[in-house]
Amino acid sequence: MRQQLEVAIRHSLAAQSRNRLAWILLVAFVPGWYLLIGSMIPHRGATFILRSNGTRLVVDGHDLTLITAGLSAITLIAGFVVFAATRRAIPFDRRLILSGYRPAALITAKTVAALAVAAAVGGYAAVVILAFWRPAGLWSVAVAFILAAARMKATLGLLVGVLVRGDLEGFFLIIMTALLDTFLENPVDNPLANKPILEFFPSYGPTQFAAAGTFHHQALAGMAAVSLGWTAAFALLGLAVLRLRMPHSSLRGTRAGRVRAAAAPGGPAIITGAASQPTATAGRSTDGLV
User: Where in the chain are the domains?
Assistant: First the structure.
């Protein structure tokens, strides 16, 4: 099991790193997005409510918009990378299962790879923001980007990758989530941003956490917990769907056939037939998946 897990993690990380277009977008898109959004929003006061304690803040709308711009960029890139890797790996994962690979190893490897991508994307977005703004609470922005938003959106990409049947549907869901979710949380863009209904949106926790640490010098542990709750929900749903869509391992059937053949009279003749039958079945199932 340990060897299978190590190999699966190594292959999952390699699959993520081979998406060169996504990494080029990460390097070029994030600073370009900060520059574009920052140039459009002036330094003007905006009312922002920390709903966990009822504090009403007047913050710089330009700086708050940079936070939500970073969150939307994280959603796009982390979601796309994990979604694309998950979609490409599904047929190969099925063949591995039919060959006797344990589903638990593959599922764990995908989780580790998604979290690694989240850490890379979130950390880069937190570093690049320093070129446009030096927040007093940089630690809160980094935590919100890495531990909250990036991990949440990476697991969202995993969920979308195993749910939708086509790439177009997946891209549409990720783009709309990235733009609408973060847009609604910003009072500069959305006059209704301080309404209670927004507490039920995924980006609510990261936005509140980053704004509280940056503009109020306060760490809202509850908002971090909300973000981790969304991450766990997306991850568990995605991994559950992935497990349900994985075929049953042919190795179990082969072993059962050998046990029955050994207990029956004329064992050697039956063993050959029992051992070869699951192999042929696995071969037919694999050919159908290619």
Answer: 2-247, 252-290
